[in-house]
Every structure is written in C-alpha cells, then in structure tokens.
Amino acid sequence: MKITYYGQSCFLLDMGGTKVLFDPFISGNPLASDVKLDQIECDYILLSHGHADHVADAEYLLKKTGATLVAIYEIVGWYQNKGIEKVHPMNIGGKVHLPFGTVKMVTAIHSSSLPDGTYAGVAAGFVVESAEKTFYYAGDTALTLDMKLIGERYKVDFAMLPIGDNFTMDVEDALVAATYVNTKKVIGMHFDTFPYIEIDHVEALELARRQQKELLLLEIGQTIEL
C-alpha cells in the first residue's frame, strides 16, 4: 500500500492499483504550493465532512478524474447539484464494499458545513479494510470513547489522526485514540497548515516515543509504503 501526503488531511492511497483520495485541500493550502493538482489521478474520493479545508478541490478532481464520490448523504446531494453523477452516499454506521475493500463510516465529533454554508450532515471518519491493510481515517474529531469500538471490532494496522489541536484532538489525545483503536502506528494530519494548528514536531515525536508508539509526520508530497 502506497500513501502520498498532500498536506492538511489529504492523502492518496494506492491499494492494489485502485487510487483513493481523502479530503482534497491542496490549491488553497500555502504549504502545498509545489503539488500539481492537475496531475493527481484517483478512482475514489472520500470526504469526511464539508469544511473547505477538506473539500476545496473535490469538485475539480471529481470532474477531471471521473472518480466516484463517497461521503455522507447531505454532501453527496450537494455535489450532485453541481453535476457530479458517480456517487455513493453513506451515513454513520453503514458500510460499502468497493473494489479496493470495505469502507465503514464511523463517528467523528466535529461540526460540518459546506463552503457556501449549506448543512453537510455530521462529520465522519472511515475504517477501511483492504486486502493489504486495515486502517482508520479519523477525519476531524475530538477524542471519543466510540473509538474503542473500532479497536474491539477491527485489527487496525495504522490510524490517520488529527494532531493540530484547537479544532481537533492534539497529539496527546491522538495517542490515546491510537490506544483505543489498538494500533501503535499513527500518521499525523491536520497540523501546521495555519497558525492555530502549528505543532512542535520534536515534542510530538518524543511524546509518541515515550508512549511506545510510532508517529509519522510526513512531508507534503512524500510517499511511503506500508
């Protein structure tokens, strides 16, 4: 499984040749100025919620690539009104079987509205079971005991967790979340993009080390293989 980080909470995962993009916010991210948006290819786009720093480039990429949108019902309807036809609406607790694996939509504690102020349902996270790995993409969320259910029901190989504080969990809470979902490998997201969510990388990595967890803070544009 190859994972490319495009900044904020945007990742492209290549799972057995199927490319899945999460929460595309690239063109508006000053830290991602070297990422060439028009060169990104994907088969599916998963949106955790409607805030602009998670959906800013979704319409462009959906139309350019012909990817299928997977999101909560209200967000799907908003994009259908913009001419997006390849969609799969979901809601919390539901799952769908797709060519790359099974996607379960799970609880996230966060607000959600679309860039024009339209109600966007509730925020969500995803648990993805593929042939290669099972992982938890938390979206924007506070620490919640619901995460323990994920650890009880799935063997999570790694978790993508927000660590920037202020709008979401901080690093300390994210490490507790990793314990709840029963994984030692965390890929940090939703950090450094704006002054509100800047973090001390050395301190974060040391905190994870002391708790015997592996925290990955990827560089924008970096690709790793897990």
From TrEMBL:
Domain of life: Bacteria
Keywords: Hydrolase
Gene3D superfamilies: Ribonuclease Z/Hydroxyacylglutathione hydrolase-like
Domain Metallo-beta-lactamase: start-end pairs: 7-190
InterPro entries the UniProt entry points to: Metallo-B-lactamas, RibonucZ/Hydroxyglut_hydro, UPF0173, UPF0173_UPF0282_UlaG_hydrolase
Keyword Hydrolase: yes
SUPFAM superfamilies linked to this entry: Metallo-hydrolase/oxidoreductase
Family matches, as HAMAP family: UPF0173 (MF_00457)
Cited PANTHER family: UPF0173 METAL-DEPENDENT HYDROLASE MJ1163, UPF0173 METAL-DEPENDENT HYDROLASE MJ1163-RELATED
Family membership: Belongs to the UPF0173 family.
Protein name, per record: UPF0173 metal-dependent hydrolase GU926_01440
